[in-house]
Amino acid sequence: MDPNPKQASSGDDNKAVLEHRSFARIGFLGNPSDVYFGRTISFTIGNFWATAKLEPSDHLLIKPHPFHDLVRFHSLDNLFYRLKNEGYYGGVRLLMAICKVFRNYCKDNGIHLHERNFTLSYDTNIPRQTGLSGSSAIVSAALSCLLDFYNVRHLIRIEVRPNLILNAEKELGIVAGLQDRVAQVYGGGLVHMDFSKDHMDRVGYGIYTIMDINLLPPLHLIYAENPSDSGKVHSTVRRKWLDGDEFIISSMAEIAKLAEDGRTALLKKDYTKLKELMNRNFDLRRSMFGDECLGAMNIEMVEVARKIGAAAKFTGSGGAVVAFCPDGPSQVKLLEEECKKAGFIVEPVKLLPTRLNNSDLKTISKP
């Protein structure tokens, strides 16, 4: 989430146009243990983003996107292939959901909202179904617009905002954890997240610690143009975990520990250890979810990277992979060649520093 919006003012603050950007997210270590009271390390990247724009208006209007919310087609075949490739859902439902959740939270917590109206729209270049948290990026950017339009940024703690985003997505049946929303709300930088059950039960959110983004080595993003659906991955594992399956519970605990070990490795810049942890994260996920659930194409992306000695794991639930080439440029070149042969896109990860402003920082709870 970008707390420093582009603002076009006509001299009247009530007519200011607000625009916020929220970036794609990489779950670096510990995912998917955020859904299981675990720990993770995540960060947002400058490669892709979603933008929300809020303009004051006489009526409240949620504006459909001309491409992602398409309702006009050239033919029946055009409609068929569009739905096959893009699915049924655009971003309008996401904007409506965050408006509802935001309004309810403010009312429930005695936060006064003025009665002026607005037009809310969005845009995004985050590839669909790549596990880069494209849906929550739209919601995160829209929430930031609402915070500024109603001038309540200082009244809603930064630790609470990911819960609002997640609750908006839950309204729509989207299955997810807090990790992605935390990384996007913190707007850049490296974030260590502790979702320990006792803390979550007590306050409703985790312990979030900002780390220096420059601790990360050079990383690469691998993704496919026609990826698998990342929304179905959690189902059977979640049920087994709730049923007390010992293998799932112990494996998820080990995945969570990878984030702790990863924090230590990053602080020491022990990249040999980091490579080991990244690979172990994927191996544990694979052992729990199984190849059929992960998908052949997703597994191939990891194996293409490992083939040339790079570390690789999912950025989220599938559709994209983050890779680390410890041997440097020569190994990166091999990675690029292998990805090209396999038909995958590979590009350097663009790291972002934290984008929190003073107003945001003042809302962070003191340890």
Automatic annotation (TrEMBL):
Domain spans labelled GHMP kinase N-terminal: 100-188
Keywords assigned by UniProt, alphabetized: ATP-binding, Carbohydrate metabolism, Cobalt, Kinase, Magnesium, Manganese, Metal-binding, Nucleotide-binding, Transferase
InterPro entries with a match to the protein in the record: GHMP_kinase_C_dom, GHMP_kinase_C_sf, GHMP_kinase_N_dom, Glucuronokinase-like, Ribosomal_Su5_D2-typ_SF
Top EC class of this enzyme: transferase
GHMP kinase C-terminal domain: residues covered: 264-333
GO molecular function, one term: glucuronokinase activity
UniProt entry tagged with the keyword Transferase: yes
Gene3D superfamilies: 3.30.230.120
Enzyme nomenclature, EC number: 2.7.1.43
Catalytically driven reaction(s): D-glucuronate + ATP = 1-phospho-alpha-D-glucuronate + ADP + H(+)
Cofactor: Co(2+); Mn(2+); Mg(2+)
Pfam name, any one: GHMP_kinases_C
UniProt key word NAD: no
Function of the molecule: Sugar-1-kinase with a strict substrate specificity for D-glucuronic acid and ATP. Involved in the biosynthesis of UDP-glucuronic acid (UDP-GlcA), providing nucleotide sugars for cell-wall polymers. May be also involved in a salvage pathway for glucuronic acid.
Family: Belongs to the GHMP kinase family.
Protein name: glucuronokinase
Organism from which the protein derives: Raphanus sativus (Radish)
Top-level taxonomy: Eukaryota, Viridiplantae, Streptophyta, Embryophyta, Tracheophyta
